[in-house]
Protein 1
Amino acid sequence: MTQPREDDEYKWHTGKKRPSGVEDAVEFVEVHKAFGRNKILRGLNMGIPNDKISMILGPSGTGKSVCIKHMVGLLYPDEGDVLVHGESVPNMRDEELFEMRKKFGVLFQDGALFGSMNLWDNVAFPLRQHTDKGEDEIEDIVNRRLREVGLEGSSDKMPNELSGGMRKRAGFARALVLDPDIVLFDEPDSGLDPVRTALLCELIQEIHEENGGAYVVITHDIMSAKRVAEYIAVLWKGRIVESGPAEELFDSENQFVRQFLSGASQGPLGME
Ligand SMILES: Nc1ncnc2c1ncn2[C@@H]1O[C@H](COP(=O)(O)OP(=O)(O)OP(=O)(O)O)[C@@H](O)[C@H]1O
């Protein structure tokens, strides 16, 4: 193999994509995205496998949230394509996009609950908004999801009466009520102490085992990745450095991946 040039900024991008063994739920094909002069995604090729918990890892500001927004059609690529179950998101008409979004459940950083509604109504909201289910059925679903996340006793509480961890669990219950094929977690561990992070990771695993589907977690918390990731994609400078089954990535020979996954201060990744 030829040695990468010292001045090649992609020299750590070995381009290795180890197969996950299943089809992709979401694919990025040569995606470019810039905001003004700030080029964020620069020819990104990434697949998110079906039925696994995947983690997109990467240093701050590399564009992990930007990726998630492309998946649900909140941002469009300048070039390239984003496919969800093989369908091109940028080419969807408004009605198709609306239908496609129903495949997704999204857990935002703080749970993104409506402050004026109690917990129960927050979790029921997507069912009332997007389905014609009757109140009895809605009640069954909401109670089941609240039980799953351990919040059945708090359904009358308002969001500002809940702790950060409870708000995240409530956001998780709400993300699940429409039985999504794909669940996106935007830094689920942010603002949680290590014990609550560990408990949330366990909950994510348990619920994934029960429900299946593609879970996509973005984080820079390596401990969470060690706990729950089945598939990992490491993003840096707008492209994937390496991706594959978690155990193989934790065993990677790529110096950048090794440094990032071990949290070491010495290595190719600096403060830039
Ligand atoms: N709508 C937007 N307009 C302009 N710039 C944006 C927009 N969205 C994101 N950016 C820029 O894109 C870059 C990547 O942001 P992004 O939030 O995706 O990073 P991240 O990898 O999720 O970071 P972190 O781990 O710190 O949350 C940042 O420099 C951000 O300022």
Protein 2
Amino acid sequence: MKVRREVLSRLHRLFYDGNRHREYASIWAMKTESLNLLLSPDEMAEADRLTIQKGVPEFELMQNAGQVVADYVRVNFSPCTVGVVCGPGNNGGDGFVVARLLRDAGWFVKLTFMGARDRLGEAARQHLDLWGAEDSPINDLLDECDLLIDGLFGAGLDRDVVGTFAELIKRMNRTRKPIVAIDMPSGIDGATGAVRGAAIRAVASVSFFRLKPGHFLLPGKSYCGDVHLGQIGILDAVLPRIGGKVWHNGPDLWQIPPYEAQGHKYSRGHCLVLSGDALSGGAARLSAMAALRSGAGLVSLFGDKAALEVQAHHVTEIMLKPAPLEKLLQDERFNSLVLGPGAGVTNALRDKVLSTIAAQRGCVLDADALMAFESDPKSLFDHIHRYGGDNIVLTPHGGEFARLFGKMDEAESKIEMVRIAAEASGAQVLLKGADTVIGAPDGRVVINSNAPAILATAGSGDVLAGIIGGMLARGMSGIDAACGGAFIHGACAQGFGKEGMIASDLVAKLPEVLMAVDK
Ligand SMILES: NC(=O)C1=CN([C@@H]2O[C@H](COP(=O)(O)OP(=O)(O)OC[C@H]3O[C@@H](n4cnc5c(N)ncnc54)[C@H](OP(=O)(O)O)[C@@H]3O)[C@@H](O)[C@H]2O)[C@H](O)CC1
Ligand SMILES: [K+]
């Protein structure tokens, strides 16, 4: 019933043409069973429990989990001597299955169990019995095996790893042998990606049913190696009961509105970008070019006449509007704005932001547009709550985020930080970084993980703001535009290569990437 209501309201909004900001279909509301959904270890344990309650034996889930890992190993490695290190819980139980299946396939397998048989659960104990061979001393296993399987801890890690286990993890890493992690690299917190004391550095992590935030948040991501997902019989039908609210970003989550055959440039939206002054216009120009390449029908730079006269020497397709913002906002066709890049932190900028919000336009508030509220963020947030923030995207980097929302030491992870910030501000918050996290005011969070290191270059953030501005102009909602923008931005950098990229190269890559994500 709830889903039906969401679909109906989505359809209502689809056909609603609010003049100021048109909204197209977002497939977001129908994503309960999406493979992009991420589950925390606790949510995963709940999915496991509900599935078992519905009659699927835990023994079978464990058998299937081991099978998925063994299959991964057989496809990706040549037969060799494998050492399986099993911990005291069900992660170790999966390890018993992997060991048995690889042995059955003719591989030479050693296994060390770092727990007590009588403390294992029933299913793990049965699988230990089926393995049935002598335990190997850990020194022999580490010396003699070519490939290690990490079955120490998975979803049940609930404290820092210390003492013997921490030493073992470090020794496994020091062998420099390839390690395949079952579920998560042991020591990585699946909910937050934090290293809990010590963690396995895996070449691959094979997980089950749905991935976890820790596979994508740093530093966890850099410990996982290749991440592989397999299905083990946990039922999709349990997902509505879990009600997960964190997703991994990808084109399945959002849809760029297609061009209409009858459309004209105004029906594709008009994005206004505030120019910096005469000596600081490059950032806004990058945003404007990105917005235009992202498919906004028209893009205009506005600002001081002196600044626009300089811009006139650089732009061709982009128009220049030397009019005051208040006047521009009377024209409803300007449906999206990008404010902040190179703008300078001034009271005048602050006023422009507040006017834009009051005029209920889609907007991206970046850099200086955020810092203009550093001393009084509440005035920004109150304004957004008053006029509505569905189509507003704030794009702070870590430093700006802390200055606007406070340090949030209490918060558990980037997910919690962004969730709190989105709720407080009433807008979408896109916290930039190597693991960009995007939050909506209703608690939904999306992790974007496709940004390569070369994206950390001057002007890259201006391009991101422009892409999101272009998406808003085309009629995407704030959350869809933010997620789409972050993914497309990362994909542009990935498509460029490893060296020498500058921000305008991202703009040049946009057509190729937009074609690739077009559904
Ligand atoms: N839902 C699924 O997809 C399935 C998952 N399977 C696998 O099971 C694990 C989760 O199993 P679980 O038994 O809940 O947890 P772990 O094996 O990860 O770890 C629990 C044991 O580890 C001890 N523990 C936890 N943290 C530490 C630590 N820092 N230092 C030392 N020991 C630690 C804990 O000990 P206690 O003292 O707290 O009791 C437990 O003994 C999941 O990751 C999958 O691999 C199923 O096989 C199939 C279904
Ligand atoms: K593990």
